UniProtKB/TrEMBL annotation:
Pfam family, one: Abhydrolase_3
Source domain of life: Eukaryota
Protein name, as recorded: Alpha/beta hydrolase fold-3 domain-containing protein
Gene3D superfamilies: alpha/beta hydrolase (3.40.50.1820)
MF annotations from Gene Ontology: hydrolase activity
Alpha/beta hydrolase fold-3 domain segment(s): 1-45
């Protein structure tokens, strides 16, 4: 599998499935970055993009993409 970025709010209905997905990737030797955002809700980065939590989540995603693109461009 390609590297995966998985982020989920702590209140998401499929939170446990997302965590399980990351764990399965790790168990098979794959690369995954998992973030569980406490207090978030579904689509919180879209609905409340200026909140501190959203800003942290957006920054985490952007940083992951930067690292991924820097690695693959070498």
């Amino acid at each position: 599998l390609p590297p995966a970025f998985i982020d989920v709010s702590s209140t998401e209905i499929f939170r446990d499935e997302d965590i399980d997905y990351a764990q399965r990737i790790w168990q098979t030797g794959g690369v995954a970055e998992l973030h569980v955002w406490p207090g978030g809700f579904h689509a919180f980065t879209v609905i409340e993009p200026n909140s501190k939590l959203s800003q942290h989540a957006i920054a985490a995603s952007a940083n992951w993409y930067r690292r991924l693109l820097a690695f693959t461009s070498k």
